[in-house]
Design a protein that fits this description.
The complex is a heterodimer of chains A (about 130) and B (about 400). Helices cover about 45% and strands about 20% of the residues of chain A. Chain A has one domain (about 5-125): Alpha-Beta Complex (Sufe protein. Chain: A), CATH 3.90.1010.10. Chain A has about 130 residues and is α+β, with helices and mostly antiparallel strands. In chain A, about 45% of the residues are buried. Chain A has helices spanning about 5-15, 60-75, 80-85, 85-95, 100-125, and strands spanning about 25-30, 40-45, 50-60. In chain B, α3 (about 45-60) packs parallel to α9 (about 240-280) and α10 crosses α13 (about 360-380). Chain B is of the alpha/beta class. Chain B is globular. The longest helix of chain B has about 40 residues, at about 240-280. Chain B has a seven-stranded mixed beta sheet with strand order 2-8-7-6-5-3-4, sandwiched between helices. A three-stranded antiparallel beta sheet of chain B has the order 9-10-12. Chain B has a two-stranded parallel ribbon with strand order 1-11. Chain B has helices spanning about 20-25, 25-30, 45-60, 75-85, 105-115, 130-140, 160-170, 190-195, 240-280, 305-315, 335-340, 345-350, 360-380; strands spanning about 5, 65-70, 95-100, 120, 145-150, 175-180, 195-200, 210-215, 285, 295-300, 320, 350-355. The chains are: A alpha+beta (about 130), B alpha/beta (about 400). Chains A and B meet through β2, β3 and α2 of A and α10 and α12 of B.
Chain lengths: ~130, ~400
């Protein structure tokens, strides 16, 4: 039996914000197919807020649900707020993950943070 | 869910045949005695064991006194390795096996290494075949045992057991084969295969869980794994699981009688499923050998996506399958069999095993062929590796 909760299954079956952003302000990629999961996050920033967040994920049910949840949590937040989204808070929002799948929740927040860092670096270089 | 559930995971276990179930029933509440008892209650269970032994032996061309009942395939494999190796340790301390064995061979062999034995696991080719020449090369004066799986439980590849046993015989080395995914499914004759011991199990051939057997050729020395009473001629102590063993015997009888019919029927379903999927989904690969595979095995890799998510979506449609993806394993490791065959990790990750059995139907195959393509499409659109 696959031990995923209702909320995880909902995000797995109906993932929010799937896709990419052609003119993204920041892109973050973590993981690789060899270790099992790979996530790419795309962000659009407006007035220091995450105007749009999209993702693409190669991975198991948990990885897809985590990506979806992270995108939903991040959308509309300021960059500082979004950087505070932790792996733990994502797992909590999903109503918990099986123990051996907790590492998937690590990837989600990491990918988002990477996208934000990518944006911030680009801004620095512009100055 | 309106549709009936579809069980395409017969490699994990099988449904018990009605005739087996009916045959077992009296051994729970009527003939519940201990077969070792001297009073009347011991009679019918003892007869049930004898009958089961006759049918188990018959299925694989063995003699009745060469069959030892155990509790599962894992126990039979452990019994063979420990029992044969310990009985031969005065002759050497080297064991040869392969990289595509079941974990009930692989993990005991790791223990052997800790206890000072030397273990060599020979590689396989892209289809999962062991090359007998590779085994020949690894043999040295200390080699006492060779253990090679007959039919692979994941990709269905059927090894050239006879060629390997010829080499073992020539060098006077004991040869065990794990036939858990072969016996009852494809024809097995232990004398033609030339094995010294052979594992086979009830739950893979429409018998109950909790019964299996180890064939040990007459005259071969083997030490018991379980010590206690003198059940199974003292080679496997412990009160026999009479209902399960009785059912196992019945399952062996039916499997032998209906072997040809089942092979023809299941192979046809298998080929239709492979063709159906290939015609509807791009970038798929059949793993294992195109023809030298077990009748019900359809092991496929879907590029750019991961197996557990495919399995989950199929499960939501009521379709039960398995996957060699690391995400789908409790240990979070990709299947050692797929990696040994040299499959790139991404391809191993995207694998799904559909294993068919005699209770599956063409209608079920058609439904899976209908349901699968949109699932694959949906997951690919989500994947960063996929470019349309």
């Amino acid at each position: 039996m696959i031990m995923y909760g209702k909320k995880v299954m909902d995000h797995f079956m109906n993932p929010r914000n799937v896709g990419d952003i052609k003119d993204a302000d920041g892109i973050g990629e973590v993981g690789n197919p060899v270790c099992g999961d790979m996530m790419t996050f795309y962000i659009k920033v407006k007035d220091n807020k995450l105007d749009d967040v999209k993702f693409k994920t190669f991975g198991c049910g948990a990885a897809i649900a985590v990506s979806s949840m992270v995108s939903e949590m991040a959308k509309g937040k300021t960059l500082d707020e979004a950087l505070k989204i932790s792996n733990k808070s994502v797992a909590e929002e999903l109503g918990g993950l099986p123990k051996n799948k907790l590492h998937c929740s690590n990837l989600g927040a990491d990918a988002l943070h990477k996208a934000i860092e990518n944006y911030q670096e680009k801004q620095k270089n512009k100055k | 869910m309106t549709e009936e559930k579809i069980f395409f995971d017969n490699a994990s276990t099988t449904r018990v045949d009605d005739r087996v179930f009916d045959y077992m029933e009296p051994y729970f509440k009527i003939n519940y005695g201990n077969p070792s008892s001297l009073h009347d209650f011991g009679g019918p269970p003892k007869e049930a064991l004898d009958k089961a032994r006759e049918h188990a032996a018959g299925l694989i061309g063995a003699k009745e006194e060469e069959i030892y009942f155990t509790s599962c395939g894992t126990e039979s494999n452990n019994f063979a390795l420990w029992g044969l190796a310990r009985a031969s340790k005065d002759r050497g301390n080297h064991i040869i096996s392969s990289r595509v064995e079941h974990l009930s061979i692989i993990n005991p062999l790791k223990e052997f290494e800790k206890e000072g034995w030397r273990v060599t696991l020979v590689p396989v080719d892209k289809y999962g075949f062991v090359n007998p020449e590779d085994i020949k090369k690894e043999i040295n004066k200390d080699t006492v045992l060779i253990s090679i799986i007959h039919a692979n439980n994941e990709v269905g590849t059927i090894q050239r057991i006879k060629e390997i046993s010829d080499i073992a015989k020539e060098k006077n080395i004991l040869f065990h084969s794990d036939g858990a995914a072969a016996a009852g499914i494809i024809p097995v004759d232990v004398n033609k295969l030339g094995v010294d011991s052979y594992t086979f199990t009830s739950q893979q051939m429409y018998g109950p869980k909790g019964a299996a057997a180890l064939y040990v050729r007459k005259g071969v020395r083997i030490k018991p794994l379980l010590l206690g009473g003198i059940q199974e001629s003292g080679r496997r102590a412990g009160t026999e699981n009479v209902p399960a063993i009785a059912g196992f015997g019945k399952a062996c009888e039916i499997a032998a009688d209906e072997m040809d019919k089942n092979i023809t029927y299941i192979s046809k379903l298998r080929d239709n499923l492979i063709e159906g999927i290939k015609s509807r989904v791009k970038n798929v690969k059949l793993n294992g050998h195109p023809t030298k595979r077990t009748p019900g095995n359809v092991h496929m890799s879907f590029e750019f996506i991961e197996g557990e998510s495919i399995l989950l979506f199929l499960n939501l449609e009521g379709i039960a399958t398995a996957s060699g993806s690391s995400c789908a394993s409790q240990a979070l490791k990709s299947s050692h069999v797929l990696l040994a065959m040299g499959l790139p990790p991404t391809i191993a990750q995207g694998s799904v095993l559909f294993s068919l059995g005699k209770y599956n139907t063409q209608k079920e195959v058609e439904r899976v062929v209908e349901v699968l393509p949109p699932i694959i499409d949906r997951l690919r659109k989500m994947s960063p590796l996929y470019k349309e």
